[in-house]
């Protein structure tokens, strides 16, 4: 059977978020970490290729995404889904616009819907403006993001700054009238010479409408929300069949490099509940200290079923001060390098159930663990499932991994996640 949907995700937590929504809506999903080898065969309704392209140079993001597109099309992918962040994380230069435009060119797509809405996680789009809960994106904690601060809530404006093609709007009044009205509006935009249509969505019903409306379009640019409306086009229905994972006994740990508001609160909650934690200081890494070595020495003898937390997570002011001293990119790279060395060292010392918080951080950790593919299991919170992954560091049984997007999860996430495996 050929692949119904080929997905390209711009970060690793985003990829598991999408795989989770597709699996729950009834698709058999495989998630690959990076581009799989040319001879890799897959038997799935959807394949999600997880890239780490959100914050690299636009040219590199385009090249990686086009390579993923070629791989997916060579395996018969009927429709392409470019998964972006539900908070539209990007800079003035991209990478959402340049990648979307390159994919549209390659696919000959003349009108492309764009919708990051994920109402289950309080991300909604109205009149083309993105809301996080009851706040405009630009008033939310996303304005302080260390790598992609989001200071404009108008997605039409944000995307237009990143694209050559014109960007228009399919507003909620149209979406409410149903799939036929959405199709007609997209057609009208196309006739006006618009290439990208930002589509409003405030509830799951709107996403189901979009799913029907976009059944025949070659390319969608979306958060994970739109995915819930696509399996219905193939006669698939919601299912929990895909969520059984093998039991993998072993020690437990959490590695958090996310500085998002939710992760900050989750770190505080974990420590307040009496969890043991080690704070990683970026300035000590920059001074050349072997911070990963010190952390792993501390962990030795403490690893058990009681999870240990290792975090660089810090409040916006502390992050800004580190970035002012080290530079934004250098700070990110240093911290990611150390946290990923810690993750690998932990697994080599017996950790088999690992939560990683933060998209970039997850990308770095999963690469250090040489994970090539993951199987999606039960959902912990919307957008965050447990997954099973083979890794040379983990031996024959592999390990259980939960990759948490920065702002996802309830405040007790780090405790709750392991409760689900008990
Ligand atoms: N204390 C710190 N000071 C400066 N930079 C930090 C600090 N802690 C973490 N970082 C860096 O901040 C970035 C956080 O990005 P990451 O994608 O991991 O989290 P996030 O943005 O909250 O998650 P998501 O992308 O899933 O929303 C990483 O590059 C990380 O290395
Ligand atoms: O869409 C989201 O918010 C997440 O899947 C994500 O991409 C965060 O990095």
From TrEMBL:
* Coiled-coil region: none
Q: What is its EC number?
A: 2.7.1.217
Keyword Cell membrane applies: no
Q: Does the keyword Nucleotide-binding apply?
A: yes
Q: Which Gene3D superfamilies match?
A: Four-carbon acid sugar kinase, nucleotide binding domain, Putative sugar-binding, N-terminal domain
Annotated Four-carbon acid sugar kinase nucleotide binding domain ranges read 253-414
Single Gene Ontology MF annotation: ATP binding
State the family named in the UniProt similarity comment for this chain.
Answer: Belongs to the four-carbon acid sugar kinase family.
Q: What does this protein do?
A: Catalyzes the ATP-dependent phosphorylation of 3-oxo-tetronate to 3-oxo-tetronate 4-phosphate.
Q: What name goes with this protein?
A: 3-oxo-tetronate kinase
Starting at the broadest rank, the lineage of the source organism is: Bacteria, Pseudomonadati, Pseudomonadota, Betaproteobacteria, Burkholderiales
């Amino acid at each position: 059977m050929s692949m119904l949907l080929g997905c390209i995700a711009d970060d690793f937590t985003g990829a598991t978020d999408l795989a989770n929504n597709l699996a729950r809506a009834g698709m058999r999903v495989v998630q690959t970490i990076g581009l799989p080898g040319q001879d890799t065969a897959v038997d799935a309704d959807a394949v999600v290729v997880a890239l780490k392209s959100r914050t690299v140079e636009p040219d590199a993001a385009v090249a990686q995404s086009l390579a993923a597109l070629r791989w997916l099309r060579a395996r018969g992918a009927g429709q392409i889904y470019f998964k972006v962040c539900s908070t539209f994380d990007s800079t003035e230069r991209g990478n959402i616009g340049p990648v979307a435009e390159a994919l549209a060119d390659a696919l000959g797509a003349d009108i492309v819907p764009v919708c990051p809405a994920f109402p289950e996680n309080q991300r909604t789009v109205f009149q083309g403006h993105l809301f996080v809960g009851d706040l405009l994106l630009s008033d939310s904690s996303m304005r302080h993001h260390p790598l992609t601060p989001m200071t404009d809530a108008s997605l039409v404006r944000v995307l237009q700054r990143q694209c050559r093609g014109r960007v228009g709007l399919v507003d909620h009044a149209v979406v409410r009238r149903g799939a036929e009205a959405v199709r007609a509006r997209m057609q009208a935009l196309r006739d006006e010479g618009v290439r990208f249509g930002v589509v409003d969505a405030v509830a799951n019903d709107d996403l189901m409408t979009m799913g029907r409306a976009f059944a025949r379009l070659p390319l969608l640019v979306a958060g994970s929300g739109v995915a819930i409306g696509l399996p219905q086009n193939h006669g698939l229905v919601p299912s929990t069949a895909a969520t059984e994972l093998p039991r993998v006994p072993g020690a437990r740990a959490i590695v958090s490099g996310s500085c998002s508001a939710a992760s900050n609160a989750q770190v505080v909650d974990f420590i307040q509940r009496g969890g043991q934690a080690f704070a990683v200081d970026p300035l000590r890494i920059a001074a050349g200290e072997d911070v990963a070595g010190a952390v792993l020495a501390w962990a030795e003898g403490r690893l058990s079923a009681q999870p240990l937390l290792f975090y660089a997570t810090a409040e916006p002011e502390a992050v800004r001060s580190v970035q002012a001293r080290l530079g934004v990119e250098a700070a990110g790279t240093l911290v990611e390098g150390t946290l990923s060395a810690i993750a690998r060292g932990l697994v080599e010392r017996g950790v088999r159930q690992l939560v990683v918080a933060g998209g970039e951080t997850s990308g770095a950790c999963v690469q250090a663990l040489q994970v090539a593919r993951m199987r999606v299991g039960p959902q912990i919170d919307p957008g965050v499932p447990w997954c099973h992954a083979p890794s040379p560091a983990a031996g024959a049984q592999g390990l259980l991994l939960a990759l948490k997007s920065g702002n996802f999860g309830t405040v007790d996430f780090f405790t709750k996640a392991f409760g689900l495996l008990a």
